Amino acid sequence: MSVRAKKHLGQHFLKDETIASQIADSLVGDGYKTVLEIGSGMGILTKYLLQKSFETHVIEIDKESVEYLKAHYLHLADRIIEADFLKINIAEYFPNQQIAIIGNFPYNISSQIVFKTLANRHLIPEFSGMFQKEVGQRIAEKEGSKTYGILSVLTQAFYDVTYLFTVDGSVFDPPPKVQSGVIHLKRKENYELPVNEKLFYNVVKTAFNQRRKTLRNSLKSLNLSDKLREDAIFALRPEQLSVARFIELTAKIENDTV
Predict the structure, then answer these.
(1) Which residues of 3-36 are buried (b: 16+ CB within 10 A; e: fewer)?
(2) How far apart are CA 159 and CA 184, in angstroms?
(3) CA 245, CA 17: separation in Å to the nearest integer?
(4) What is the pLDDT of residues 130-168, one digit of tens each?
(5) Phi then psi for 135, rounded to 5 degrees?
(6) Distances (CA, A) of 184 to 3, 15, 118, 227
(7) 23: three-class secondary structure by DSSP
(8) How far apart are CA 83 and CA 164, in angstroms?
(9) What is the pLDDT of residue 133?
(10) Which of 32, 36, 240, 253 is close enough to 236 for a disulfide, judged by CB 3.0 to 4.6 Å?
(11) For residue 37, which of 134, 163, 130, 139 has the smallest C-alpha distance?
(12) What is the mean pLDDT of residues 212-225?
């Protein structure tokens, strides 16, 4: 595939065998027998996944990459999905199955891949992937940090997140101008919220959209009662709240009577 085509796809292809092996090894394999690799490119990660005990499937939108995979990994041919991961119904491709997600994700859609994973968390017990370093760190960040935000809270509400290691740009073709980071998500044993999920998402997003303001001011649009707005939690800024406290905040709002 040409460099121009790769840039068009927003993807930088890994060429370091050791790192590919380490990413493949990051999957524990508990609770599933199937793995879906997103954006497999020329298969540098794929070949290490195929050495594992689980059944590897790949999803690839680029026709040149699909033809390459079919030619070089003959036993994989019937497990290649030629589609856009963001547009497929995962349950239709993997009915009644638990699957893991893995990949060297295109920077420009990596956050969307995470959000789709969260929406399908009942199907996805484990997830490992390479992101732009800053995005990977943001997903894993804890409260109290300037980089802690919407992606941090929503991901950590359902998954235990571990930032595994940093990858230099020199091991990619074409080399990006930034570093990359590999993270691992393990679904929590209880991955359902004790509050209304839609409201929880709304509270988190609304709060961080005006992150410099206290919650008393940033959540004005939710039409809270004067009594609730006097609660001490509303004097805090969103980055001061842990995931547990965001759930607590959502419960307070859910039970509020204006």
Answers:
(1) eeebeebebbbbeeeebbebbbebbeeeebeebb
(2) 9
(3) 42
(4) 999 999 999 999 999 999 999 999 999 999 999 999 999
(5) -70, -45
(6) 29, 21, 14, 41
(7) helix
(8) 29
(9) 96
(10) 240
(11) 130
(12) 95
Which helix (H) or strand (E) segment holds residue 99: the answer is: strand 99-104
pTM here is: 0.92
In 3-state terms, what secondary structure has residue 90?
helix
**Which pair of structure tokens corresponds to residue 199?**
């409201």
> Predicted confidence band at 210 (pLDDT cuts at 50, 70, 90)?
very high
pLDDT at 10: 53
Place of tokens 């499937």: 57
Please write the tens of the pLDDT for every residue from 61-105: 999 999 999 999 998 999 999 999 999 999 999 999 999 999 999
Amino acid at 119: A
The token pair at 112 is: 């969307």
d(CA 117, CA 112): 9
Which residues, 6 or more positions from 121, have their beta carbon under 8 angstroms from its beta carbon? 158, 159, 187, 191
Helices and strands in the chain: count of H runs, count of E runs: 12, 9
The candidate with the shortest Cα–Cα distance to 135, out of 150, 120, 119, is 150
